[in-house]
Fold this sequence. Notes:
The protein has helices spanning about 30-45, 60-65, 75-90, 105, 110-115, 125-135, 200-205, 215-225, 245-255, 270-275, 280-285, 300-305, 310-325, 340-350, 405-420, 425-440, 470-475, and strands spanning about 20-25, 45-50, 70, 95-100, 120-125, 150, 175, 180, 185, 190, 210, 230-235, 260-265, 285-295, 325-330, 460. By secondary structure, the protein is an alpha/beta fold. Helix 1 packs across helix 6 (about 125-135), helix 14 runs antiparallel to helix 16 (about 425-440) and helix 15 (about 405-420) packs antiparallel against helix 16 (about 425-440). Iron/sulfur cluster binds near residues 192, 194, 196, 199 and 267. The site of iron/sulfur cluster (SF4) has 10 residues, from helix 7.
Amino acid sequence: MFDGSAGPQRGASGERCKIVLVSPYDLGRQPFALAEPAAWLARAGFEVACLDLSLQRLEPEVLAGARMVAVHVGMHTATRIAVGALPRIRRLAPDAHLCVYGLYAPMNEALLRGFGVHTVLGGECEPALLEAALAAREHREPPDAVPVVKLDKIGFVTPLRDGLPDLKRYAHLKLPGGRVKVSGFAEASRGCKHLCRHCPVVPVYQGRFRVIPVEVVLADIRQQAIMGAEHISFGDPDFFNGPTHALRVVRALHREFPRLTYDATIKIEHLVERADLLPELKRTGCLFVTSAAEAVDDRVLRFLAKNHTSVDFDRAVGLLRAAGIALAPTFVAFTPWTTLEGYLALLERVLALKLVAAVPPVQLSLRLLVPAGSYLFKLRGFHNMVGPFDDALLGFPWRHPDPRVDALQRKIQEFVARAGPEEPSRGAAFCEVWRMAHNAAGRAAPALDEADFGDEIPRLSEPWYCCAEPTNRQLAVL
Ligand code: SF4
């Protein structure tokens, strides 16, 4: 186990060696993926500067003199922004060793190297980041010229959040009725033990996950509570990969901060299998759970290897409601197997389950992303369904056999993008999507005047998704 404890790091002339960590976007969260490496590097004596492009610009004075610039790409949208940022980073820090790390780095290795990136890292990156920083300090080539996906257990330390923008500037919790709370962001594990075919975690972690010790998670929560956090959003890919660990974390959280609330992401399968744990989540302050329902069509769910059925989704809705916890479902609304009728069935199910108010409009627009290394290629014949890798899309494009489906997806995506960062009313947006989908299918849209859209739920001010077009606002900081 490499824990990164080393003495102060200085260059040959004795000056401190500056490393800049950059986060293009992390769903409006103050990024753990910057704060954890920052702690490792600072502890080893490096001068660490962080730039979060969701709130800051690529400032020349921050990048000037950097020996290494490491950009984190934890999601598709972030990778698209990173690709736009890399040429400017190279201009502003021409002598810096360039590194890109995170889930989307290894799968985009060839493209990233074309932008002059020397080190590409995925998995448990901190030791390799530290080694690359040591090499940069000594003006050596970094030890690995190939992508490094390392899953060795590492010694997590308390994340260093001082160099990041104020927590209050990040996404906040919005409660029904309009009250807002400052949200902090923590991770209790990384990776995932499941192998859903469309998931970007899978090619890197390949069914494994790593837990972050309870005391480290608690120390991170504690420092964010001091910064004003009244709620914690857990960013683990799946909070119930290790339910015992998750319970230890939330019990400790609740013991020390009984007024702090939290949310987490838990897959439908786990919600059904471990329904016995839901009352304990509620007792310890869980307000809502995000869950990747993805589809209501069992055939599509099988293609995605979700290991849950459409009926399980209904069960999970009931179980969470019974426990008094809100559900924020997410969907891959458009896939090569989604028919217009199937899309209408998704809308009808959202309506029937009274989940309209729980679904951000972006979730009704998302199209299956096929990144390099996707386990979807393990489906027989899948490679025939996609075109060659598209550098601009950062994925393999696909066309639906029914062009009306692609046309509908584009229309809904444009509608959601037009609405901008401030979501329109979820009910109003749903009605518009409902109308568009029925039009596309050549059916009259049933009136929704009397429909019950369900209760408003607690939510973060920036919705969860992993692959959407970067907005002009996100690209403007470059
Ligand atoms: S979709 Fe969720 S449960 Fe499935 S592999 Fe990815 S993180 Fe794990």
